[in-house]
């Protein structure tokens, strides 16, 4: 016999916030529902480790709520398979449990927010929606700082956030006298530096049962399966990873936050894949950890360990959380749903098939893609300036780029993925997010990594058979979009250098790029 419930509260897979005001009191008449859903596991082909991580975290959260005295219904794919979508499942549960009120937290994806809004408005019972209580800025505050279609700049927003929340401030001025230490944080890793990088803190979760469910229900996934999941799926583990980062990685985080390496050990395994990065993005985006707690812990370690952690290191990290993360969210909600269709550079080329295998002769792309397939992870410069840069200068259709990024990364939820990809990386939004297109030749890769050392292609060449494809593709992109970027102060020097080259040289470069694009599957 089914026990009745006066109120049903839905918890989505990225709403695992134990500090939410919902959970301050126990009430047997309230039923919390956490459900694995086919619609969420398959709206794009997700990395198998991403699906496992969310399902494992949802299960752990359900158990934690039960231990805290709450009434929880945790449903797996086996339980939800008969239902076509989330509304169908909720309709059945409401009827089955005699529910008189339905409540949910505002989803952070437009797709889900619309689905649940329509569902709630169709109910004959009472319904209520509340904030997720996770971000620095509430949903109601976002329109104050973000307007649809308007070009916004993160730096101005970041400074306002620092002042408002009194983070790294000295009265009304920034601590240390300047807001941004980005110029100090562009070091390349040398061989000795790589040896000094601490081994990453990893976790072991047996997800054999989840992998079996994924296979049993024919969920299309990508990437390398691993029955021993390495990511934190509980608040305790996430806090341990945060403590590890602050203790061992934060002292060098800013200095090497843009650096990349492809060095392997004697067995051919990657020596490092996470470097000094925190790898907290999954815990943050699933709301296991709050951004406020993460920032407070980083600042605390900086303040109590001044000999170990400089201001430049902690500022670079704080900027990613209180600045970029909140900024990207504001851009998303100010511009959806139209933002998902923007394509200002009219890019239409198909994504090469080797994005799903890593089978390319370009060492930088091979490493970044294989790492992504192996771990569902790559840090922000790998995403922006390796895979993202290639897609940008090759003219890959932004909807295909979006799908790849949204599927392959463990932390990818549309609110954070879409503005970063379609906006920052691909400039498809025409400059709403960024003031320039982040296009680069092979010289950038050489400057910030060791990828070029053993590459099939030569980074110093442009038109020869063995020339780095990025070089000619970069100039082809800049030449093609001179009307778009020629007046930008940040790219005027680039065009001045291009226009100094002879017509013969320009034709040779553009011809090489055309050949690479025609044979993009063989690069």
From TrEMBL:
InterPro entries: Crypto/Photolyase_FAD-like_sf, PhrB-like, Rossmann-like_a/b/a_fold, UV-DNA_repair_photolyase. It comes from the Bacteria. Pfam families: DPRP. This is Cryptochrome/photolyase family protein. It comes from Enterovibrio gelatinilyticus. The lineage of its organism: Bacteria, Pseudomonadati, Pseudomonadota, Gammaproteobacteria, Vibrionales.
């Amino acid at each position: 016999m089914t026990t009745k419930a006066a109120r049903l509260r839905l918890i989505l897979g990225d709403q695992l916030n134990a500090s939410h005001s919902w959970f301050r009191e126990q009430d047997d008449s309230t039923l919390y529902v956490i459900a694995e859903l086919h619609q969420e596991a398959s709206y794009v082909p997700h990395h198998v480790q991403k699906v496992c991580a969310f399902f494992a975290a949802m299960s752990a959260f359900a158990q934690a709520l039960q231990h805290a005295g709450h009434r929880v219904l945790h449903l797996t794919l086996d339980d939800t398979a008969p239902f076509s979508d989330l509304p169908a499942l909720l309709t059945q549960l409401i009827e089955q449990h005699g529910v008189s009120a339905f409540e949910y937290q505002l989803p952070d994806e437009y797709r889900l927010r619309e689905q649940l809004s329509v569902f709630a408005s169709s109910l004959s019972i009472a319904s209520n929606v509340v904030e997720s209580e996770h971000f620095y800025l509430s949903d109601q505050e976002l329109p104050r700082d973000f307007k649809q279609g308007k070009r916004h700049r993160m730096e101005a927003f970041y400074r306002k956030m620092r002042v408002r929340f009194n983070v790294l401030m000295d009265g009304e001025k920034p601590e240390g006298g300047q807001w941004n230490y980005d110029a100090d944080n562009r070091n390349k890793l040398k061989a000795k530096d790589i040896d000094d990088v601490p081994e990453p803190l990893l976790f072991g979760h047996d997800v054999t049962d989840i992998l079996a469910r994924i296979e049993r229900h024919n969920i299309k996934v990508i990437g390398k399966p691993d029955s021993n999941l390495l990511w934190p799926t509980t608040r305790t583990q996430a806090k341990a990873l945060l403590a590890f980062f602050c203790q061992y990685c934060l002292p060098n985080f800013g200095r090497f936050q843009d650096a990349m390496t492809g060095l392997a050990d004697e067995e051919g395994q990657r020596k490092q894949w996470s470097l000094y990065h925190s790898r907290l993005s999954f815990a943050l985006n699933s709301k296991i950890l709050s951004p406020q707690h993460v920032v407070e812990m980083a600042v605390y370690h900086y303040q109590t360990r001044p000999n170990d952690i400089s201001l430049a290191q902690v500022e670079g990290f704080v900027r990613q959380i209180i600045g970029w993360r909140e900024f990207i969210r504001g851009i998303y909600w100010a511009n959806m749903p139209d933002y998902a269709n923007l394509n200002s550079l009219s890019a239409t080329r198909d994504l090469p098939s080797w994005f799903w295998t890593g089978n390319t002769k370009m060492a930088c792309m091979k490493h970044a893609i294989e790492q992504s397939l192996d771990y569902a992870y790559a840090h922000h410069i790998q995403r922006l300036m390796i895979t993202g840069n290639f897609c940008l200068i090759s003219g890959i259709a932004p909807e295909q780029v979006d799908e790849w990024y949204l599927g392959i990364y463990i932390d990818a939820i549309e609110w954070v993925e879409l503005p970063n990809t379609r906006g920052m990386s691909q400039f498809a939004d025409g400059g709403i997010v960024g003031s320039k297109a982040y296009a680069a030749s092979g010289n950038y890769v050489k400057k910030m990594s060791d990828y070029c050392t053993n590459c099939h292609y030569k980074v110093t060449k442009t038109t020869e058979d063995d020339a780095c494809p990025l070089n000619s593709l970069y100039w082809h992109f800049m030449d093609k979009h001179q009307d778009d970027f020629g007046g930008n102060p940040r790219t005027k020097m680039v065009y001045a250098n291009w226009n100094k080259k002879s017509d013969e040289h320009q034709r040779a470069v553009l011809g090489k790029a055309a050949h690479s694009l025609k044979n993009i599957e063989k690069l």
